[in-house]
Amino acid sequence: MNFNPAAPRDHMLLSFGAILCYAFSVTYVDNYVRVLAEEGSLWQFHAMRSALSLVIMWALALLFSKSLRPKNIRAVALRSLLHGGAIMIYFGALAFLPVAQVAAGLFTAPIFVLLIQRWAFNAKIAPLQILAVAVGFCGVVMVLGPEVMQGTSLAALLPILAAVLYAIGNITTRRNCGPETAWAMLTGFFIAIGMMGLTVMLILTAIGSEVAPGPQGFIARGAVWPDATFLFWIFMQAVFSIFGVGMMIQAYRLAEASRVSVFEYVLLPVSAFWGYILWGQLLSWVAIMGMILIAISGLLISLFRPIQA
Asked: Is pTM beyond 0.85 here?
């Protein structure tokens, strides 16, 4: 086999650059979910963002002659529901917690992938991976606070629930969606999360119960009349999400997947950076140390993959 020592370095640099573009674009626009939460609805946000994203993707698919149709509809539908549910919960948590903290919770997904593979598929776990789980668990408690252990704060538990669904979705992707294109999977994701948002929005609107003002009512609101600010950030979310995910897909094409997955932990400091620049949010040293532990945990898990029994 021919080996070119210069190629991997070039690919790794380009891959890391693509991940940086993904991190800065996605975490920037996610910081403005708190603006939408003041008067808007989580469910309407997802319904409208998905509709706009699908229109943009359809136009891009025509332009670049790409197919949005999946090869295995059931597999893509299952993956889309799992990832859609995870991201739905992720955005709900953004109304109450800083992006850096919610992202840290979501990045515990590799821990749950490891545990699910062990108990559901009888995969063997190396001792170092057990240590990684323990390290990651400590990091979660440090980032999200003691409320995670006490169960007194639903908002603190939401990122963990999102991570569990995201982990199951990742396992589904690996086991059942290998032949699928990124275009098909991204289309399925937006359809799933858009339908979930539309369904819950219509139900809440029909019930018409009284809703708390401000971010406290973000999850409980049905349809609201969108103002210019709401529409602007819906558009920005659609554009930045498609661009960011496109950069992430490109990163995985430029380098080996296990290495790129480590690059993704750059989202933690980048999200903290935007939180400080945009809102003056400062994380405690305990939370910062927790984020470092979560990144170390993910690094250890990615370096030593479980072996199927």
From this structure: no
